[in-house]
Design goal:
single chain; alpha+beta; globular; two-stranded antiparallel ribbon; binds zinc ion; 3-stranded antiparallel sheet; 111 residues
């Protein structure tokens, strides 16, 4: 079965939206690191990864970058650009996936 790029990007963007809400509520508190959801393409993945809020902001500054657990990346669509403790940052390199990820970027209008 060939994975559908639009579906991949949509699933990952949904997790991104959830994490944006988690980040928003964390900013008001005093936490420096926060438990976010893995933003991989598996809609049934509900695993968590702990990320420093500053690092989270850095990843979110790019509409094609996502936070996933090690091994949850899809090499045909995304490249691991950074490996960190407990999680990694992937960047969409496949054109169709990247386009949808950019279009669904919740920060696009704010930028
Ligand atoms: Zn995952």
């Amino acid at each position: 079965v060939k994975p559908d790029p639009a579906k991949i990007a949509t699933t990952e963007s949904l997790f991104r939206d959830v994490n944006e809400r988690i980040a928003e509520s964390a900013v008001g508190g005093h936490m420096s690191s926060v438990d976010f959801f893995c933003e991989c393409a598996d809609p049934t993945c509900t695993e968590r990864l702990t990320v420093d809020l500053q690092d989270y902001e850095e990843v979110r500054s790019s509409g094609t970058d996502f936070l996933v657990l090690p091994g949850h990346e899809l090499p045909a669509f995304e490249h691991v650009i950074s490996r960190r403790r407990g999680y990694q940052v992937v960047r969409k390199v496949e054109k169709a996936v990247a386009a949808v990820a950019r279009r669904l970027n919740p920060r696009r209008r704010r930028a």
